[in-house]
Amino acid sequence: MPSRPRSLDSSIGTKLLVGFTGFLLFLYLILHIGGNVMVFLGPDTFNGYSDLLLSNPLIIPIEIGLVMIFLVHIYKTVAMTLDNRRARPVKYARKKSAGAPSRKSVASSTMIVSGLWLLLFIVIHVRTFKFGPEYETASGVRDLYRLEMENFSDPITVVFYLISMLVVGSHLWHGASSALQSLGIDSQTWTPRILLSGKVAAVLIAGGFIVITVWAFSQGART
Amino acid sequence: MRLTLKIWRQAGPNVAGRLVVYAADHVSPDMSFLEMLDVVNEGLIKKGEDAIAFDSDCREGICGMCGLVVNGIPHGPDRGTTVCQLHMRRFKDGDTITIEPWRAKAFPVVKDLVVDRSAFDRIIAAGGYVSVNCGGAPDGNAIPISKDVSELAMDSAACIGCGACVAACKNASAHLFMSAKISHLALLPQGQVERARRVVQMVTQADAEGFGSCSNEGECEAVCPKEIPISNIARMTREYLRAVVRI
């Protein structure tokens, strides 16, 4: 019988880790968009909120934790995808979805592609904002509002962000509810609700970020 | 009916196979899919050619022996049926039908459309049993099991081990097959003795056989001739967690 750490290497252990880290990242995205909508309340509120985060001593351990969650999610999903490909060395000449009750969708079939796109996006995104130019406001806090407005005045950046947000939406369309199924959460009553909520959340999160990006671009265009 | 068949022909386990086109004339809409193949084979035998090898046994949809991927769907387009219960009235005159074997590393092709599914036997041997001696058939009410639980266990026990779940899964995963047996036994008092050991050993065996992992798409449920739901897979995950905590 395998010992506990080896259990996480099994196909179910992999599912549990991918589902658990994926769900934490989904929760993080909800916090992220919750913070971002403050941009509509003006530079003072937005910068005040970001300063509240930046000046919190817990932010460093939380960031390290977030990076670890990302690394586990990426490593496990890439390794799993390669293993899964090896499980069918000869492909079908013709393959079709059997339809309902299957949950297969374009989103579910392209999770590794959307995931790798998001990895690229996140590297660029973190470099642009977290490690971007350090503007300061008159009151001495980091002026992220200005940085955001500057970035989203560039149409190429805006298009890249809009595509990436559609990719986030696609990843969550399958991923949000699938994470809970992977953790073994399932019931006749709750599963249909979880499946629907996952899709609603995907649309709201991706849509929310798209609205913010387009709004920021339109602000730049106005000035 | 006149049909064009594109059938996977492979002479043996370690040789390359290919799709070969056959014309099937005189197909009656009342024939089952396998009867249609029988007629094609009789034609081939008359011409002195090698008959197309495919598995079948009861031809009543209950034994789990048959299994073909018909136009990209294991067991064909009908829900909740094996391919022996698929009838030619489901197709139209002039149709082209592609017929392939189950494709998975763990199910190597033996010949043409026949695959070796003994990996499933080894998974069952690893834990899908009850080793306590239950004696003769017990009195119906001797062990109290509520109606809803016994129904759930029976639904899972309905698995005929045909392997369509593996064939449909993009990862060639055996999770639905395993989870059906694990659910069946975990839900009943007779299965409690080996409950933790069973799930760990069966999952370990399936991984070693080269089956893939599960992406929660549910293609397996959609092709399962016994319509076993993927809620069993979620139960298997809970059983696994429970077992790992107890080891």
Task: Describe the fold and architecture.
The complex is a heterodimer of chains A (about 220) and B (about 250). By secondary structure, chain A is an all-alpha fold. Chain A has a single domain (about 5-85, about 105-220), classed as 3 helical TM bundles of succinate and fumarate reductases (Up-down Bundle). Chain A is built from nine helices and no strands. In chain A, α4 runs antiparallel to α6 (about 110-130) and α8 (about 155-180) runs antiparallel to α9. Chain A is globular and about 60 Å long. The mean pLDDT of chain A is about 95. Chain B has about 250 residues and is α+β, with helices and mostly antiparallel strands. Chain B has two domains: about 5-110, Roll (Ubiquitin-like (UB roll)), CATH 3.10.20.30; about 115-245, Alpha-helical ferredoxin (Fumarate Reductase Iron-sulfur Protein, Chain B, domain 2, Orthogonal Bundle), CATH 1.10.1060. Chain B is built from eight helices and seven strands, in the order ββαβββββααααααα. Chain B has helices at about 35-45, 120-125, 145-155, 165-170, 175-185, 195-210, 220-225, 230-245, and strands at about 5-10, 20-25, 70, 75, 95-100, 110, 115. In chain B, the strands form two sheets. In chain B, strands 2-1-5-3-4 form a five-stranded mixed beta sheet. A two-stranded antiparallel sheet of chain B has the order 6-7. The longest helix of chain B has 16 residues, at about 230-245. The N and C termini of chain B lie far apart (about 60 Å). The chains are: A mainly alpha (about 220), B alpha+beta (about 250). The interface between A and B is large, with 48 and 54 residues.
